Amino acid sequence: MLTRDQLLTALELLSDKLVAEGKMGELLLMGGAAMSLVYDARDMTKDIDALYEPKSDINRLSAEVAKEMSLPNDWLNDGVKGFISSTVDTREYLSLPGLQINSVTPEYLLAMKLLSARISDTDLNDVRYLIAELDIQNAQQAYAILEKYYPKSQVLPKTMYLIEELLS
Known about the structure:
- By secondary structure, the chain is α/β, with parallel strands linked by helices.
- The protein has helices at about 5-20, 30-40, 55-70, 105-115, 120-135, 140-150, 155-165; strands spanning about 1-5, 25-30, 45, 50-55, 75, 90-95, 100-105.
- The protein folds into 2 domains: about 1-105; about 110-165, no CATH class.
- The protein contains 7 helices and 7 strands; from the N terminus they run βαβαββαβββαααα.
- A hairpin with a 2-residue loop joins strand 6 and strand 7 (about 100-105).
- Helix 1 crosses helix 3, helix 4 runs antiparallel to helix 5 (about 120-135) and helix 4 crosses helix 6.
């Protein structure tokens, strides 16, 4: 698990490496990294799930950061791309000299977490936190947020059960 401080240090080092090469990167935080860094909902996460450009440069430089900081090779990854909808709501998080870091909004993050409907303690706690943060009072409000970003055809029964269980 990586702490907030480790994540920030790794991102700053990545930014420094981009600057050293005369490049500027963009990164969109999602998942546990957004919960930890942006929303202060938890102290740690296993990695940074993000979309980023320039992809090949950031992949190469993040491997250097992993080696220098003794981090897992996948400390920064784009595995979350399978949960991206056609509409992504974002907000600014942090601007570093070589890296502009944005995050998805709490609404969008909730929709992503509901769509995946993982039932680990961490994910359930994230969903509960976001429900409270957004002042969602009932299942209909949660469904409305989910359907704002994802078509009904993508919503699995396990997502509906999760929403009903959390908000009934």
